[in-house]
Amino acid sequence: MAEMKRLLGYAMEYKWMFASGIMLMVLMVGFELLGPFIAMMILDNHIKVGEGSIELAPIFELLGLFFAIKVLHAIFSYFQTVILQKSGGLVVRKMRNDVFSHVQKLPIRYFDDLPAGRVVARITNDTETILEMFSVVLPMFMVSALTVGTITVIIFTINVWTGIMMLIFIPVIILWMVLYRKYSNDYNHNKRERNSDMNAMINESINGMPVIQVFNRERQIEEEFGELNDDYVKNSKSLINLESATGENLLESFRSLIFAVMVYIFASSFLDDAQALSVGTMYVLVDYITRFFNPLYNIIGQLNIFEEARVAAVKVFELLDARSEAQDEGELGEFTGDIRFRDVSFSYDGVENVLADINIEAAAGETVALVGHTGSGKSSIINLLLRFYDPDRGQILFDGRDTKEISKQSLRQRMSIVLQDPFIYSGSLLYNIRLNNEEISVEAASDALVSVGGEELLGRMDQGIHTELTERGSTLSLGERQLISFARALVFNPKVLVLDEATSNIDSETEQMIQHAMKVVSRDRTTFIIAHRLSTVQHSDQIVLLEDGRIAEQGNHESLMRSGGEYSRMYEMQVTGKPV
């Protein structure tokens, strides 16, 4: 139950709110349990059956007291519910913020094999289940436990034998709860896992809907989702069967047995005038026994939700316990833009190298073009440059300092990237350029967009730079999205720029527009370019041709063409369109 201790740690940050709610809860239970005593006083003291008289005045006084008690009970109940639900909401809000903040700090490697839908499920679904536990289940458990304990003490003072009978059943109920938790744990765990799998599949299906529809994969996707859904329903049914077999039926049997004992005690008491129970006392016992079992019904009814919340907490804390990127490296400080790869080797799985013996020297302000066939290692070099991963062997040096000694945040503050298919967020054009950085003025963002050739795009926007864009920029062309990405890179004024295949898959007119943007953004910046179109990188200071994770050729365009190697062959083939 370590996860429950950690949840308690979150709750302790709002301990005074929880303490206030619990105090109101005690008062609420106390006032609720006064009602049967008032009824007993009316029955035993003011309704005299043998004399055929009813004392109305004291009865009305007691009924007035009963009404006042009910009003106070309602007031205490309202405020304790509000306070406990609010405090539970604050706990879960902090937990969600902690999880989301922690996810931002996790290394890219963590997400390689983890579907995005699973992370979404942890932050949303699982924390929502925990919220239900704090706001509904735990308050109900505390009220129920307090009610059962108080009633047990009261019944003992009225009739010892009835109290003993009720005490006998409490260990039995506790044993039942332990057994229930044992068998329900696996069902709940599997249920949460299938729920996460379904979230992941829904997320992937929505993102990949064009591919699914074009390749007529709808039926196969439906079948895969149906299997996950069937497994989810199967575990849900198993939980329902477990509850049905061991739930209220068991308690109903206990209650019937106690009522049978009560009838025996009541009947026996008439044989001995000294031990005879009054009608009022009998009423109180019956009322309290009924009230005794109602909280137990509530506990059993909510036990499954409690178990679901416990399993959800395990999942959330697994994500929180995932090792984040180290934050204790030093600052980069002044940086001219000089970058060197020295004997760098790297593998994603720790076994097979995707890069081997990479040596690249880029002086401040130079442009380095990475070319080669798919899978040659171009993107892996960029991943190391951005410190999404660290090399297994060798060093990457920024102004002579090993990047492993520099914090990722400090490093990335000097860098910007333009992707082949830039990501556009739901929000204004301004938001997408400055990424909510209020230090960047509206004028600076507008100037950056105009500088990279986006004046026409800006002019077409109804509300200018404040125009709202759709999710992923679905109403914009690829070239327009790239212009926004170039403006984003320019306005952050980086020392190092990464252009990841920015001119692939576009028409000639758009390519000219992008080429202009590239020249503007890369001016006086150390630039790394990944490109398939070799015509776009012929003016680079250095071209690195990669084959199977190794440098096959290296030099500028003229020297590589004179050498007549693979680069020359690839360039001639692209220019003439014929194999060489």
Radius of gyration: 36 Å
Instruction: Let me know the CATH homologous superfamily of the domain at 2-321.
Output: ABC transporter type 1, transmembrane domain
Q: Which shape, going by the Cα principal axes?
A: elongated
CATH architecture of the domain at 2-321: Up-down Bundle
Strand content: 5-15%
**Largest β-sheet summary:** 6 strands, mixed
- Enumerate the spans where pLDDT stays under 50 for 5 or more consecutive residues: none
Number of helices: 19
Description of the structure:
By secondary structure, the chain is α/β, with parallel strands linked by helices. Among the domains are: 2-321, ABC transporter transmembrane region fold, CATH 1.20.1560.10; 421-493, Rossmann fold (3-Layer(aba) Sandwich). 63% of the residues lie in helices and 11% in strands. The strands form 4 sheets. The chain has a 6-stranded mixed beta sheet with strand order 8-11-12-5-13-14, with helices on both faces. The chain has a 4-stranded antiparallel beta sheet with strand order 4-3-6-7, with helices on one face. A hairpin with a 2-residue loop joins strand 6 (393-398) and strand 7 (401-402). Helix 4 runs antiparallel to helix 5 (116-158) and helix 14 (442-451) packs across helix 16 (478-491). The model has no long low-confidence stretch (mean pLDDT 82).
Task: Describe this protein with a few key phrases.
580 residues; alpha/beta; ABC transporter transmembrane region fold; Rossmann fold; six-stranded mixed sheet; four-stranded antiparallel sheet; 14 strands
